[in-house]
Amino acid sequence: MMSGSDKNVFEKFSNWATKFTGSSYAFIGATLIVIIWAASGPVFNYSETWQLVINTGTTIITFLMVFLIQKAQNKDSKAIQIKLNELIAANEKASNRMVDIEDLTEKELDQIHCYYEKLADFAEEDVDIHASHSIDAAQQNQDHKDEMFRKRHAEWLKEQNQQHG
């Protein structure tokens, strides 16, 4: 297991490497390497070794970059999730059920996505642009509709029983 200082050194290097490899300087440097390699082709008679140098170098760099990019992506994703969770927790109209939904399955996320598409349709139809359409409000509406349906159904059954009884 890494000590705190080792993690700190790796974290610092990772942050630096991520920023550097995404910079204009890194792109210009990579372009210059390819130009120098291509220009050196005649000197090495376009040999297999000459080709192997660029192939091996780019393969190794690509292999390492995949892990560096994934680490940066994981860190960014976690930071964004924390920020979004804070916004959800701070907004009284937002549903707290959305906190940590990244742990749901793909199918569960698809179901929630479909729900939000429907909410977007409701919002487009709503004249008041400040009206809130949250999952909790929709659940309350659904519960109310269900209660009204059951009440009307019970009344209908009572009428049926009186007519036939």
Give short descriptive properties of this protein.
5 helices; mainly alpha; elongated; 0% strand; 165 residues
Could you give the topology of this structure?
Elements: H1 4-21, H2 24-39, H3 48-90, H4 106-125, H5 135-164
Helix pairs in contact: 1-3
Q: How many individual helices?
A: 5
User: Level of helix content?
Assistant: over 70%
Broad shape: elongated
Strand content: under 5%
| H-E string | HHHHH
The tally of strands reads 0
- Which assembly state applies to the chains in this document? single chain
Report on the biggest sheet.
none
Structure description:
With 165 residues, the chain is mostly helical. The protein has helices at 4-21, 24-39, 48-90, 106-125, 135-164. Helix 1 crosses helix 3. The protein is elongated, with a radius of gyration of 30 Å.
Task: Give a brief rundown of this model.
The chain is built from five helices and no strands. With 165 residues, the protein is an all-alpha fold.
